[in-house]
Amino acid sequence: EQVFVRHAFRFWMGRNETLHDRVVLQDAHKAYRQSGGSMKALLTSLLTSDAFLYRKPERNPSP
Q1: Which of 1, 29, 3, 7 lies closest to 49, judged by CA?
Q2: pLDDT at residue 61 tops 70
Q3: Which of 35, 25, 24 is nearest to 3 (CA)?
Q4: Please, what sign has the CA dihedral across residues 15, 20, 1, 52?
Q5: From CA 21, how far away is CA 28, in angstroms rounded?
Q6: Measuring CA to CA, which residue among 5, 7, 18, 9 is closest to residue 47?
Q7: Over the stretch 13-59, which tens digit does the pLDDT of each residue have?
Q8: Which one of 6, 36, 38, 46 is least enclosed by Cβ atoms within 10 Å?
Q9: Alpha carbons 29 and 20: distance in angstroms, whole number
């Protein structure tokens, strides 16, 4: 489950997780488990997190 949550995080955030993302990942995993494995609950948790809402674009995106 945690691997799945990390992969979802990476896809939707467009970056790898850092130590600062620990709480976001824990909250997303908790939402996923408490909902019985609901993708909707996982995405809602990720996409309403401060990490997503206040993300910054890459300075030098690769082509």
Answers
A1: 29
A2: no
A3: 25
A4: negative
A5: 11
A6: 9
A7: 999 999 999 999 999 999 999 999 999 999 999 999 999 998 877 67
A8: 36
A9: 16
CA distance 61 to 3: 25
Q: Does residue 27 come out as left (phi exceeding 0), alpha (psi in the -120 to 50 range) or beta? A: alpha
H runs (alpha helix) in the chain: 2-13, 22-34, 39-47, 50-53
Looking at residue 4, its pLDDT comes to 95
> Considering the entire predicted model, what is its pTM?
0.81
Instruction: Note the pLDDT of residue 24.
Output: 96
Return the pLDDT at 62: 63
